[in-house]
Here is the input.
Amino acid sequence: MKIQIKKLHPDAKIPKFALAGDVGMDLYSVADIIIKPGERASCPTGIAIKIPSGYAALIWDKSGPSHKAGIKTLGGVIDSNYVGEWLVGLVNLGQDAYAIESGQKIAQVLIQKIEQPEIEEVEELEQTNRGNGGFGSTGIK
Here is the structure.
């Protein structure tokens, strides 16, 4: 599979796998941004990517900023028919302001094959051993 990437900003970095065996390609910021605790930001990447039909791009956290500073990604599904600039939604769940510099890794993207199921409306769903048991129903509280 090939994906097409277009630079929209001269400082944009092409996503890449940091190490052999990585499943996510790193995405980079083209802006200097400070996200205060509790704030959200749309961080520009300066790139547009054409994902092949039948696939989706899933944007996930970078583990370092997520675990160390509470920086989480938001709304991370990009459809194959979107060819505009990729913006990465970020929220600061930490207690300190978080500074992003242009060129910094901000998230990772996984390209994943998707299925589009046929939808069938039914009067009843098949019963399972869990039934409609929700949060904590298996004994974990």
